[in-house]
Write a structure and sequence with these properties.
With 144 residues, the protein is mainly alpha-helical. Among the domains are: 32-59, no CATH class; 92-139, no CATH class. The protein is built from 6 helices and 2 strands. It has helices at residues 15-25, 44-58, 67-74, 92-100, 115-120, 122-139; strands at residues 34-36, 39-41. Strands 1-2 form a two-stranded antiparallel sheet.
Length: 144
């Protein structure tokens, strides 16, 4: 509705109107016709079979490599040839500082702990995390 208040710019700020227009303008088309070996296919079943064959050829089945075969095929460094990390010291103060700087509005990590909780309890959790991280570095084992 155009009123005297908005007669100069009648559609300004009318999000609902433009959402409606955008929705009506969308064409609902599926997969276009496909050509295989010089022949044009328009039927959905034919197109599905062509795409299925293409994906099967692009993605091979899992191959059974032994660990040694895989490493040698990729020329990966083994644990013996990798450089070592020396003299890493994890401090409670450093962890505390990192916890204080967490964004509480971010989503939880894979552990499911909210950054808001970690930030609020930074002084209580920093010493525990310091022990955990140091033990992990010393033993070379990441806890589950």
């Amino acid at each position: 509705i155009i009123t005297p208040q908005n007669d100069e710019k009648p559609f300004e700020g009318s999000k609902k109107f433009w959402s409606f227009v955008k929705h009506k303008r969308k064409e609902k088309i599926g997969i276009t016709s496909l050509m295989k070996e010089g022949k044009l296919f328009t039927e959905p079943a034919d197109k599905a079979n062509i795409l299925n064959a293409q994906f099967q050829s692009a993605f091979s089945e899992k191959s059974t490599f032994t660990k040694d075969q895989f490493i040698s095929s990729k020329r990966m460094k083994t644990k013996k040839t990798l450089p070592t990390i020396k003299n890493i010291t994890i401090t409670t103060e450093g962890i505390d500082k990192l916890l204080k700087n967490l964004n509480p509005n971010k989503s939880p990590g894979p552990d499911g702990i909210s950054p808001r909780i970690l930030k609020e309890l930074h002084s209580e959790t920093a010493p525990l995390l310091q022990l955990l991280f140091s033990k992990s570095l010393d033993t070379g084992v990441v806890p589950k």
